Amino acid sequence: MYQRADRRHLPDSRISFDIISAMNALLDLLPAVLFFTAYWLRGLYTATAVLIVACCSTLLVTWLRTRRVPRMQLVTAILAIVFGGLTLWLHNPAFIKLKFKVASVGL
Prior knowledge:
- The protein is mostly helical.
- Helix content is 80%, strand content 0%.
- It has helices at residues 13-42, 44-66, 71-90, 94-106.
- The longest helix is centred in the N-terminal third of the chain and has 30 residues, at 13-42.
């Protein structure tokens, strides 16, 4: 006969869910925190390069963890690459400023 599982000895799934959701939130905020830190320490152009690398790294880590990428994260990374690349290539800060406006209006 089968015995009923004693629930006192089962791991609490809420704890693991809280850790995963906190890690996802930290991963989502990491590019913004790195951008503003680099902007404060080195200026806009360095911060723009840091933002592009951080967004690509976040996409890679998310893909490796879950084998899928959320649409909002993908769109944000594409906007950062396009507008950040234009900012670095043309040396014009208007493009990276436009990225934040497009992202806030479009998403």
